[in-house]
Amino acid sequence: xxxxxxxxxxxxxxxxxxxxxxxxxxxxxxxxxxxxxxxxxxxxxxxxxxxxxxxxxxxxxxxxxxxxxxxxxxxxxxxxxxxxxxxxxxxxxxxxxxxxxxxxxxxxxxxxxxxxxxxxxxxxxxxxxxxxxxxxxxxxxxxxxxxxxxxxxxxxxxxxxxxxxxxxxxxxxxxxxxxxxxxxxxxxxxxxxxxxxxxxxxxxxxxxxxxxxxxxxxxxxxxxxxxxxxxxxxxxxxxxxxxxxxxxxxxxxxxxxxxxxxxxxxxxxxxxxxxxxxxxxxxxxxxxxxxxxxxxxxxxxxxxxxxxxxxxxxxxxxxxxxxxxxxxxxxxxxxxxx
Length: 338
Hints:
By secondary structure, the protein is of the alpha/beta class. About 40% of the residues lie in helices and about 10% in strands. The protein has helices at about 10-20, 45-55, 80-85, 100-110, 145-150, 175-190, 195-220, 240-245, 260-275, 290-300, 320-335, and strands at about 20-25, 40-45, 60-65, 90-95, 115, 230, 245-250, 280, 300-305.
């Protein structure tokens, strides 16, 4: 454990919370900052990483999330206080390429154990809203065929400066890839905190088993459907689509704040008509305005497909598994699954 312990006043803790250094409660009895807990202190970049740390670490870890519930992770900017508190942690768990300020802060920190989830599985390139003009398709296209028919330019950096050069970062939305990451995180915890290695190994195995069961639920639940195509506001579901033979058509690119072009909106209207699309999906952490506008223009309905970037009071579930099962229910309805 980190030996650099120090007392932090209640005022300091309040200030830290106000600056966005949120602490998850599942593995801690109070809101102590990283480095002052007597446990194996793990700083996680945002909810999917924090969820892994909590499930794998169990009672032995204290998990602190850099991204507050309800905060859009792509937009996170690390404060000076958060940077200082990072130095007090035993380990940092993050996903390089999703949050540039986190990448920079962790890269410059002296933390001994830095776990990049992007290195624990294979990242792939998925489409952006600009990518349907080329004659030839995406080498990672799905069975449904829209990626093959319309192509994908694979823009690596969006207009907001988010660097996705390493590929699509939304790996946690594929239960199989998320399980691969979980196994890597478990091994890293075992190495960093060998006194509790047996528990980390057991907890990892249990989590991987649950993720495999979730994968099977998606395979079974989506097996018989009337269409493969679904429309989203945010190109977050490329891995999920590829895993289950679906075709995601996103209004925006990998950055949920990117505004779609007029040509893209017209193209989506055509796709919806040709492929029997019934629903435009939006998410809980960004505005639903664009989705409702498109739906209104095309006579479609709207529903939530949650990228599980954070859990709030508006989430359809209290943790990753519950929200993903709610996503499955929404997809089954939209795709006409029987």
